Amino acid sequence: MHESHLQCEELIRNLEAGIFRWSLDSNSQVLFANPAFNRMLGYSDQNISHVRLKDIFKDTEEFDRLMTKISSEGRVRNEWIKIKKGDGQVIECSLNAVLAKAKDSGNLVVDGVVEDITEHKKAREGLLQAKIAAEEANSAKSMFLANMSHEVRTPMNAVIGMLDLTLDMDLTQEQRDNLMTAKEAADNLLNLLNDILDISRVESGKIKLEAIEFNLWQVIDSITKGLSVLAHKKNIKLVSRVKPNVPRLVVGDSTRLRQIIINLVNNAIKFTHEGQVEIIVDAAFALDDEVILTFSISDTGIGIPKDKQATIFDVFTQADASITRRYGGTGLGLAICKKLVEMMDGHIRIESEEGTGSTFIFSIRLKAKPDTGMPMSSAHKENEFFQRPEVSSKGLRILNILLAEDNPLNQKIAVKLLEKRGWLVTTVENGQQAVDQVAQKKFDLVLMDVQMPVLDGLQATRMIREREKISKEHIPVVAMTARAMAEDEKKCLDAGMDAYISKPIDAQKFYGTIEGVVGLPKESA
Ligand code: ADP
Predict the structure, then answer these.
(1) pLDDT of residue 324
(2) At 114, is the secondary structure helix, strand, or coil?
(3) Which end of the chain is flanked by fewer CB atoms within 10 Å, N or C?
């Protein structure tokens, strides 16, 4: 017993933490303090007995608060306090203390341990500052990338537009081949730019997912229809199967879900030379209205070697170096898909056999909405889109189009493309002029650049829509913008625009969107 008592004393004397006992009465006088406590506060062993606990707190309110807490709860844990040393210097300490009854006197006392954490806090604040600085730098990088994308896309619009127009002229085979190569390179450059932009935004946490109700069946349907053209060109069959238990209406971010599926199907088509690509959607119900959706995209393509499968989702990774030479690409698509799937509380994996094919499977968790009684006939049907969508005869209507675009080069390209179709074009250079023109004349459609001086395209559209509340008319407005982010598309639609064309203009998509919006039958490509 005596032995352990001595050991205890030795321990308390040697410890670097300040150990103390104070009386709980109004004097709050020191009853015991170990050498470390005295050192920490800069008092001698004798002087400390004259010090009141209250006096060493920098802030007496803090002292009162802690005493109340100790009295009522019996203890305080890891409280950060500011203590005034004997020489007036203030240090930051952590305090752990407990209410006890002194064995000798039977009085209530406070036993506690204090540790000087001034250096810890300085280091922590340094880290915090560094974190804030890093976050600011990262967001500046994202901003820079977004702006740069706009600046790069605008001249690219001219390059691709002019190539498209020239490719439509009478050319020798050699001239055509040269221009086709230039066009392919320009398209690739644009894809690369979009991917870099996307990954940087995902990585900097700039992408926020939406939670909006959408029709999942329609999404699958339109992706299959849209990509069947590409599959057909390669003589590959593209099939989609949505299991009957999959809810039609779900709540989530349809734009990002589309992006994931399109990316995987595009890859599947790209790396397949014969056979088919199949999209399967299945559902399992979780708690309440939650549904776990599993999408599998399988192909009969070149497959991915086992040793490459683990790294295939990393940024800038391709199965092997020859892939870039043969198929192009950047190795960013799957990294973006993985990040987006994870943001949707899901995971993605791959099953693949070299030479036989690959299946990419991802699951996400969404909220399902009860079906509002839409016809189920096609819902239970297997969707198979092999043929290119039917093409009808030339639309005969001459459209009267208002083009609002401030960049002379972009204006020239759009006018040329529109006039090629035999349509009439009126051009203006800013949103205000567009609003004025729409008020004065009747147009079938407005093509509206988004970034314009005086009044931008979004504000102009809002003004047009505001006036239409009185006139009860609706003029289709199609946005044309070099900003290619999904949020930008949403901003346009929210402002009341009917559709969105991203620049550089792809001639076929340009015509297709216009014809779709004004209800003309689609012309043959
Ligand atoms: P990219 O296709 O632009 O190179 P991705 O990240 O989309 O970038 O794909 C990375 C790599 O994964 C591809 O280069 C390819 O080697 C491999 N890959 C992806 N999808 C498939 C597929 N369906 N079949 C075979 N290989 C694939």
Answers:
(1) 63
(2) strand
(3) N
